[in-house]
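Input.
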Amino acid sequence: MVKLGFICEGETEKIIVESVIFRDFLTANNFEFIKAFDATGNGNLLPENISPIIYNLLDEGVEKIFVLTDLDEDACITKTKERINAPEGIVVIVSVKKIEAWFLADSNLLSSLFKGNFLFEDPESESDPRQILKDLLMQKTGRGIGDSKPRFATKMVNNGFSIINAAAHPNCNSAQYFIQKLTHLLK
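Output.
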């Protein structure tokens, strides 16, 4: 089994990688989840801040480290990766534009939440996918979710969110890239 560690931009990313569905996917594909760290913001994803986390993960036996972050307002994925400047061998996954776009890309999740077949056409084109989801939830279910990002992510995960489903969406390239990078480790 390949032992994995994750450095997450924030609580949402950490909630996603710690979810039962994702961890079951890892186990089924011969990966062992070791640990996920919350860097508490993309400003903390700088070499001097992630180096101690990397050493901690390596001390715990992690063989492969992934950094999960948002594109946010950066001009492109390359600029985000350059800012992070991760050491060689560390895989940086940049969700476009925000990680919550992956929730919009999981058609199974949305169909379940909205009690009917639902496909969001282009999730990664949205500048505020969390707000789009909040609005859709209110419109389709009459229930809100509040402003807490961790509570929102937990609701999505508890309702069946799957990165694998998000990666199956034709317009969610960052989730597809993440799954490709994981499965490439097995080759």
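The radius of gyration is 16 Å.
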